[in-house]
Fold each of these.
Amino acid sequence: MSRVIISALIPLECKRKRILFIGLSLIALLLFAATGWCNLSSSVSKYKNKTVSKEEIRKLARYDHLIRYFSDFAYFVPKHKVNPDFIRALIVAESGVDPKAISTKKALGLGQILLSTGQQAGKELFQLKTTFRYVSKAQLNNLNRNDLFDPAINILLTCYLISKYNYKFKGKLDLVVSAWNAGENTQSLAYGQHAPYQETENLIGKINGYFTYLLKNKVFP
């Protein structure tokens, strides 16, 4: 049997607070023999040299205040936060930084969120005692389709959901992205394995490639 050990979460110090760092390329990949893991390794290798274009960086800069703000909350574990560069990488991979993007599966906005997923996350956020700038609690409790085209709402939901999956899947990038792309209740995740779909494996590779590029080049210091 072959498998790839992707990564455990790696805490970083940032402004004296620990940040949940979900690295993939920066640790060794241990390869054995199961087809699914070999496919994932192939996708990671395929996209490992991805770069973020100047145009994508320019677009990301428009939303940088929102990404920094919403990624600065510890939604599930005290003092642990999502890395803003991971959120940036996800947005580039999913929508090309287009707030009006619509996928063939009707995922919407910057992070490409399905309406049903967004509505559930909105209700969970509504139940929190936390209040947020840029987004009203009433909006979160009654999200509609057009709300997901609002960059503030979409980025908040993206940060919250990634934080949720980090917590649930111990910061392992392949599992976090699988939950994001295929659903957190996908059967393979219960066994600690990524979702065995080409689309998911490619997304893992792309996000990892963009994330590594952003970290290495300190595009947004």
Amino acid sequence: MFVLILCSIFCGILAGMGVGGGSIFILITTMFNIFEHKVAQAYNLIMFIAVGIAATIFNLKNKKIDKKLLKKLVVPTCIGSITGILIVRAIDENILKNMFYCFMIIIGIYEIITSLKNIINAKNNSE
């Protein structure tokens, strides 16, 4: 239970920073066999609600959210969320886990390549 609490705090911090703490939460809790993949996803979504509400309030107060754009995004986001829920219910646990891990690897590779490009561009611009 202590590991789960530490994991939740760590992932909450990352999520609050917009770094994708939920994906990390799923990865850590499934790697250490704390949860099955679908259960980890369910807890991630619960955490996402808390982080989302807090971040939204903070960003609205600091006028960092365009309310007109927000209104346009709410319905498509809800449609996408409901579609995702229906898809997850139909996918086998092992297939879902492998799809998730492949997605994480692709994102990781993309981030490394992007970072390297930025480093090279910054170095070229400073010369």
Amino acid sequence: MEDQQNIELEPEYSQVVFGRGIDKARAYAAILARDSDTFGLLGPRELPKLWSRHVLNSGLLSELIQPGDKVVDVGSGAGLPGIPMAISVPEAHFTLVEPMERRSNWLVSVVQELGLENVEVIRSRAEDLERTDFTVATARAVAALDKLLRLLTPLIRGSKSGTVLAMKGSKAPEEIQLAAKRMERLGFEAPEILTLGEGKAPETATVVRIRLKA
């Protein structure tokens, strides 16, 4: 385990984002710090930004989730962004999809350790899932938007309000341009680039939100 001195202190804004779930968010951050090296969850230089770049940054997406939503987090890996979102919105249900056995087993243990009753873990590739009823599909650092839409769109096809939330960085406009034909072909509305946490969080989250046409 890394030296505790290298682990970022919890930013004040975390309590606003996680509310009553702040203790679970703290426990999750501690688990990430404890297990990151063993399971290859985060890069070796990421612990000094554990909260601002990962736990809190993912939790910011919760403002885009409604109670009752069925959210699928594809390529969940370290549980990002799914677990912070699930902590923040206990009234929604989250499915974490991870193809690697070692990481999916780790995710199961984390969900149990945190007592997250609104989360299930499925070991699978996105393209092998047969469910189509998710209302929201999300992913972080999985693939470029064009490829990501191929993976995520089938999972929300059966929902009346199917939405993709793709965590992206400064190249979001470029990725949108490259995926324009696919978005049109798949039946999406015009995409939005949202900046979450501006003026509040240590690091903002850039999210591309795309909704299927009704």
Amino acid sequence: MALDDIAAGAGRIIEAVEQVIQGKSDAIRLAVTVMLAEGHLLIEDVPGVGKTMLAKALARAIDCSVRRIQFTPDLLPSDVTGVSVWNQDTREFEFKPGAIFANIVVGDEINRASPKTQSALLECMEERHVTVDGVTYELEPPFMVLATQNPVEMEGTYPLPEAQRDRFTARLAIGYPSPDAELEMVDQHGGGSPLEDLEAVSDSLEVAKLIEAVRTVHIAEPVRRYAVDIVTATRDNRDLRLGASPRATLHLLRAGRAAAALEGRDYVLPDDLQTLAVPVLAHRLLLSAEAQVARRTAQAVVADVIASVPVPQEQAAPRPDRQRRSG
């Protein structure tokens, strides 16, 4: 698939979602970037700003299987992964798939479930299969978890385990809309939900092809080393008691490939990694006690890391012979 086809296919999805979510182009673009990077997205913000609407709009823009899980304190792990049930007719156990068996899984208010239930997502998000009673069941690609959560300071919420947060490729905060965007939202949403009029502009087969094409985007050795240097710097930062993991490096580079493809490039620039560093890295970091007292944020720490790590000066684009072959 040519780069122009990737940009065009992703552009149709972005335009479709923008019909529902007004004034949040950057958030929508990041969501599509994560999808093309074979990742999972965590949408965190206060209630009422459109977290679930964004997740549902992206799911509806793609003609594929979609399941929604409403995370509540009484939700069980088997509700997510599935359970083996005794069949009286066949005299055998029969597997009943849980809500995780879909191309796009919308997890609403994921931090309202207990840590035990949240942990049911660990295997499927990382390895893309589920093991129940010793039997492994593969998840059909493409597979993406779009989870929303309220800030942990709000009543009735549990903090996500570190292992859970690390499996999300990126976290975004939608934020309040501008007055003009909010006025447009009132006009469009006042008579009904715009989701009802949103038609699918892609399907699971096309998305799988887009993901496969994004994997071919070139990352030069200096850019790969730049990503490693950024992540390594978080491990040595005095404001952090837990830096980013090697998985974070992989996610940063995969997201960089997707971002470059959306721009119509077949190579990743350091600028791509700088733009994605905060959404990809900040939610994985744990601040030190001193940084918390000083009211530092993980986003600010990542910004400082980006400013301190030298940017590679060598050419990031692929060699001319590679450009000729890819064309």
